[in-house]
Every structure is written in C-alpha cells, then in structure tokens.
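Shipment paperwork, digital attachment
Item: protein structure file
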Amino acid sequence: MTDNILPSRSHRLESDSPRKKRGVAIFLRDLLIIFVVALLISFLIKTFLVRSFYIPSGSMENTLLVNDRIIVNQLEPGLVPVSRGDVVVFRDPGGWLPPQAPLEQNPVIAALDWTMSVVGLSAPDSNDHLIKRIIGLPGDHVVCCNALGQMTVNDVPLNEPYVLLPEGQTSASQDAFDVVVPDDSLWVMGDNRYDSLDSRYHPNTPGKGFVPMDNVVGRALVISWPLERWSWLDDYPDVFRGVEEAEQ
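Attachment content:
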C-alpha cells in the first residue's frame, strides 16, 4: 500500500512545480505592467498638469525660502488665465539668467535624477526657470512709487503685505519705473523687493523686462517641502481688488 501512495505524492509535487513557476512569472509580469502604467500616468501628469520645482534663490523671501520645493499647476495660463498676485514659474525670456555650467553627476545619480524628473519628483531644470509674482497684466499701467512709497496699477495704489523690505525702508521699490505692459506679456516682481532681479532690471533684454505669456510654465500652488513649511501660496486677491473694480 505504501508503494502505491508514494509515487502518487511524487507525481503531485512534480505537477505543482510548473504551476508555481507560471504563477511567479504572471506576478512579475503584472508587477512590471503596473510599474509601466504608473510611470506613464506620472509622466502625463508631470507633462500636462503639475510639476515640482525647487527655489534656488532668496528673491521671493519671505514667501518662499531657498531650497523650498513647490508644486506648479501647468493648466495656467494655457487653460485657466493667470491673475495679478499669482506666483508663477517661467522660462528665461532671454538675458535674465547667467549661462549655466553643465551639472556633473555620477551615472547612478544622473539616472535616478532623470527617473524622478520624469514623474515630477525632481526638477533638474529649476536653474533654467524663474519664479516671481505677477503685478501687471497686458495693458496695465504700473508705476512706482507714489508719495507714500506705494506701487500703483492703473492709478490704484497697492498695499502689499507679502513684500519684504530692508529695515528702515518704506518704498515698494528702490528704483522708480513707469511702464505699460504689452499684449500677451506680464510685469513680474519678487517679494524680496530690494534683492530681486525682476522686470525692473531687464530693460535691455529682448523682452525689455516683460515676460511673454508663452514663457509661463504655470502657477505655483503649494510649498510641498520641507514638511514643516507645507502651505498653499496666497495670491492676495484683496491687494488687487481695487484695480479690478476700477476696470468695471
């Protein structure tokens, strides 16, 4: 009786082995498909919806600090119009940034950085972009400064709580200016007004200090890192409400 049972058990074990191998192969195949689909979805989100950037300078202090990471909505201004007060990321219009030396990385770090950039978790091109706050929209007349040191947009004075000024300074800009924003362009300024090379300081560039709308990558929505600074970025609609009311 024993001789009849053992071969039966051996046959069962041998027949189970191919099934197990096939099950492992199917699992690995499904895992690879899930990974590829997730990577594709992340790539599409990064390409069309949101992107991550880091802040390399102090020109937007104290709203944004050096090495903060932000999430940018790329639907603006393509599908959703931008507004005065929005903080936007844009490509260099030409002449705003000095030439960048190639970044040297070992192959492993470079591959990891590229993979993370595909899914929007890294921003190796942050140094090729700038981030400022929109002050003037196309057609706006932007002037600084009035007798109280305020900037005006279409003759409406602005009270700007987000502006960082050096101790003892009350003027919204250390240099006076009087501009009218061209069509399809923006006038942008950093919140750290006395330490920001923004629209005021590029009159001799191709865009004469204005940022073409086509150069805008998107509107910054949130500080995503470090965690203790996680917060939504305010566009301060009350600051510009008087300008909007004057247009009606």
